Amino acid sequence: MSKKIRSEEMDRLLEGILLLKDKEEAYQFFEDLCTVNEMVSLCQRFSVAAMLRQEKTYLDIAEQTGASTATISRVNRALNYGNDGYDMVLRRLEEAGE
């Protein structure tokens, strides 16, 4: 994980997230934690990551998600040079049949 975001506060937030028991609790927590726009942005980035892994074009991704090419590029950079977080979660979702 990047040292830029590692902190006691971040540790506490992540520990709290790991304590959520189900999707309903996650909805409750994230609706309190984030604005609607922040949640939309997070969902959009996750969708972009999945589509990039499916080798969709930037144009197709932009049309289907509404993401800017800058956002798509940022997600692509994370996929190629990041910490493999997107791949880890996408793979686990696939394995779980989601």
Automatic annotation (TrEMBL):
SUPFAM superfamilies hit by this protein: TrpR-like
Pfam families with a match to the protein in the record: Trp_repressor
Gene3D superfamilies membership: TrpR-like (1.10.1270.10)
Protein name, UniProt field: TrpR YerC/YecD
